[in-house]
Design brief:
107 residues, alpha+beta, 3-stranded antiparallel beta sheet, 2 helices
Length: 107
């Protein structure tokens, strides 16, 4: 069975592709921040991840914005939550997601 680090490293290209696909969809009125003074167009993205075990394959899902605990990511045990903007670098965001999830699995 793969280690958590190996599993997350395999996910990074998929998350990179997802973030790259989401960035062009950030509309002018979208906000990633709750700060009323921050008017930078952005989007909040939550990635949910469940690691591989002997009984199941690794899986993940995502959601954008606040889905009040009903989005696809909430069916998973571990999350990474990021804000993306039009100038975000998808590879850096994907690594940040993997790091967040890796930290949550380290406990």
């Amino acid at each position: 069975m793969k280690t958590i680090e190996e599993q997350l490293n395999e996910m990074i290209p998929q998350w990179n592709k997802l973030i790259a696909a989401l960035i062009p969809n950030i509309c002018d009125e979208y906000r990633a921040s709750d700060d009323p003074e921050d008017d930078t167009p952005g989007m909040s993205v939550t990635i949910g991840f469940t690691p591989e075990t002997e009984d199941r394959d690794a899986s993940w899902s995502y959601q954008t914005g606040d889905n009040s605990y009903s989005g696809g990511a909430y069916g998973h045990e571990n999350w990474g939550v990021v804000s993306i903007y039009r100038d975000s670098k998808p590879s850096e965001v994907a690594e940040d997601i993997a790091n967040q999830i890796g930290e949550s699995l380290a406990y």
